[in-house]
Design a protein that fits this description.
By secondary structure, this protein is α/β, with parallel strands linked by helices. Helix 5 packs parallel to helix 6. 41% of the residues lie in helices and 19% in strands. The strands form two sheets. The chain has an eight-stranded parallel barrel, surrounded by five helices. The chain has ten helices and twelve strands.
Length: 328
């Protein structure tokens, strides 16, 4: 059954934030920053005892930790600079600690999987003056990396996965990647990159965070539905980031993030597609639009709207299919 999760960038959550999540009916937290876990600053990987304390504290508010994040692989590592090899050791140790804490959905970030010089960011003004992220292609931008440069990037990726995938199998955890955002031409974690990872590492413990918004940026609803079928029927979708967009790089040379009911994609249709391929993980309504009363560190008004919208869609899906699509 699908559940609702939200992303948090810090492990230093106060009781007020946890109460607010509980009151909204959030099921799980996705902890997104590998450097924020207790112990990482001191030793390069999380401290097990403090991680277990965090897990118990979140559980005391009726929620679970769904996804965690390994320390990032830096540009120095991806360029094979001297001294950067310690990052791989820290990632391996972090994976082991997460496993020992019973946290089984683990993301890894790699520097260089996006090409920010190829677009210009802007603040898009939507209904009532709400502010959303927009990007437009720069036609005169510097070119994407060459095939040779990308091959070098992939060699470093393969070094990491060659080490971490056997550990993921040994510790019975799921190692997942998120699509390149923004999905410019030849970004490593685009649709072809996802296939490359699945082909090279056909392990049950290797999967994807499928980001509806990011992949919509690449090609809109048809691409999203096709990829849900492709990766969902192979049981490779382990977490879904759920947001709407207007336009796409393919159709408009630009896109704008939008509220769930205010973009070009039919989000109910996308949830139905996920249900049809048997997806039963978390739905995470990420990249929240900034609303008038959102002034704090966490945009609670936007989150309340997004979480409620997703829970309503899941309830409607249950009624439509006659099957339990979500957990109350």
């Amino acid at each position: 059954m699908m559940r609702v999760s939200i992303q948090v960038k810090s492990c230093d959550l106060d009781d007020s934030d946890l109460k607010q999540m509980c009151q909204l009916g959030v099921d799980c937290l996705d902890l997104t920053m590998g450097g924020s876990f207790p112990g990482v600053r001191e030793q390069g990987y999380p401290d097990l005892d403090r991680l277990l304390q965090l897990k118990r504290r979140i559980r005391s508010f009726g929620m679970e930790i769904n996804r965690v994040t390994l320390p990032d692989f830096s540009e120095a590592f991806m360029l094979d600079n001297p001294g950067s090899e310690q990052e791989l050791e820290h990632a391996a140790l972090a994976l082991k600690v997460f496993s020992e804490a019973g946290l089984t959905l683990i993301r890894q970030r790699f520097a260089g999987d996006v090409f920010p010089h190829m677009a210009e960011n802007y603040s898009a003004v939507h209904r009532g003056g709400s502010i959303a992220r927009g990007e437009t292609l720069l036609r005169s931008a510097n070119p994407a990396p060459t095939i040779e440069q990308l091959a070098g990037w992939w060699r470093r990726f393969d070094l990491v996965y060659g080490r971490l995938v056997p550990l993921a199998e040994e510790y019975n955890v799921n190692l997942v990647v998120h699509p390149s955002d923004t999905p410019h031409h030849n970004t490593p974690f685009g649709g072809l990159g996802f296939h490359r990872i699945i082909d090279a590492y056909p392990s049950r413990n290797v999967g994807l965070i499928y980001c509806v918004g990011t992949r919509g940026e690449a090609g809109g609803t048809p691409l999203v539905l096709d990829e849900i079928y492709q990766y969902g029927r192979k049981d490779k979708i382990r977490l879904v980031h759920f947001r709407n967009i207007r336009g796409s790089l393919a159709t408009a040379g630009a896109f704008e993030e939008a509220m769930l009911d205010d973009g070009h994609m039919n989000m109910a249709r996308i949830l139905l597609a996920l249900h049809k391929v048997g997806y039963n993980g978390c739905i995470n309504p990420d990249h929240i639009t900034s609303l008038e009363m959102d002034r704090g560190a966490i945009p609670w008004v936007g989150w309340a709207y997004a979480v409620g919208y997703v829970k309503a869609l899941l309830a409607a899906l249950t009624e439509f299919t006659g099957e339990a699509a979500w957990r109350n």
